[in-house]
């Protein structure tokens, strides 16, 4: 960081702080900043505080957990609202409300993906039957023996989030810390299912270039057949995928 001593013809004298942190300027004709060292300390402190406040915003809390997954607008709104409530929660009823919002988010998540016409084994499960509906979804989108371990972990992850959100909802002894854990797990489950869908519908997922082995692949237009033309961005080799 550099502190500039700036003199102007008509606008007075200023200290200008410039560097890796956002730039700002401070008037020298006021008694708050006596030296460049004091300006440095003040600027560093206030910028770090602003950055910390930004990181603690509800939407940043959700973004940090979801790692940029494309959550649906409605689900993101619910998670952001729960995060806002979390920052203000003190009383037990407010903490229980976090559990309720996590439950509602999980119900909407599964309902958002669930399609009874395309999932085998549908038994007309209730909308709130997150565990059984979720299991059918996981079985559909993670088929094959190579996905056995991931199916197991994702089911356990979903079931744990559902059980713990119910615990927070009905407990009279949980604290803000348990509520934060509940929201963190719920957000991670939503992100996991969004990535599950992305994996399933990505035509290049798991593919490697047959020439160089790179995974930097794109799907190109193919007017000759309905098959997909996959192009390697590394060596430009192309191949057809059914």
Percentage of helical residues?
40-55%
Largest sheet: 3 strands, antiparallel
Mean pLDDT: 83
Number of strands: 6
Structural class: mainly alpha
Give a written overview of the molecule.
The protein is mainly α. It folds into 3 domains: 54 residues, no CATH class; 137 residues; 39 residues, no CATH class. The protein has 7 helices and 6 strands; from the N terminus they run E-E-E-H-H-H-H-H-H-H-E-E-E. A 3-stranded antiparallel sheet has the order 1-2-3, covered by helices on one side. Helix 4 runs antiparallel to helix 6, helix 5 runs antiparallel to helix 6 and helix 6 packs antiparallel against helix 7. The radius of gyration is 26 Å and the shape is flat.
Tell me the layout of helices and strands.
Layout: E1 2-7, E2 13-18, E3 24-27, H1 36-55, H2 58-66, H3 73-88, H4 92-113, H5 130-141, H6 148-170, H7 176-201, E4 217-220, E5 228-232, E6 238-241
Antiparallel strand pairs: 1-2, 2-3, 4-5, 5-6
Short description:
This protein is mainly alpha-helical and 242 residues long. It has seven helices and six strands, in the order E-E-E-H-H-H-H-H-H-H-E-E-E. The strands form two sheets. The chain has a three-stranded antiparallel sheet with strand order 1-2-3, with helices on one face.
């Amino acid at each position: 960081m550099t502190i500039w001593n700036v003199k102007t013809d008509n606008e007075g004298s200023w200290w200008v702080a410039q560097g890796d942190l956002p730039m700002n300027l401070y008037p020298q004709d006021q008694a708050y900043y006596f030296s460049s060292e004091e300006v440095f300390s003040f600027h560093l402190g206030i910028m770090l505080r602003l950055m910390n406040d930004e990181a603690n915003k509800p939407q940043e809390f959700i973004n940090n957990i979801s790692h940029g997954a494309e959550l649906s607008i409605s689900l993101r709104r619910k998670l952001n609202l729960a995060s806002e409530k979390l920052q203000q929660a003190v009383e037990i009823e407010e903490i229980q409300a976090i559990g309720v919002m996590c439950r509602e988010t999980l119900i909407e998540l599964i309902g958002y993906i669930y399609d009874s016409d395309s999932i085998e084994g549908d038994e007309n499960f209730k909308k709130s039957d997150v565990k059984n509906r979720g299991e059918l979804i996981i079985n559909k989108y993670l088929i094959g023996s190579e996905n056995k371990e991931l199916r197991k972990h994702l089911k356990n992850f979903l079931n744990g989030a559902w059980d713990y959100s119910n615990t927070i909802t009905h407990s009279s002894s949980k604290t803000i810390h348990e509520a934060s854990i509940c929201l963190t797990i719920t957000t991670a489950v939503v992100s996991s299912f969004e990535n599950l869908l992305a994996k399933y519908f990505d035509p290049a997922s798991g593919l490697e270039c047959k020439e160089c082995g790179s995974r930097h692949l794109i799907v190109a237009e193919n007017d000759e057949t309905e098959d997909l033309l996959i192009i390697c961005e590394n060596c430009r080799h192309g191949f057809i995928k059914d």
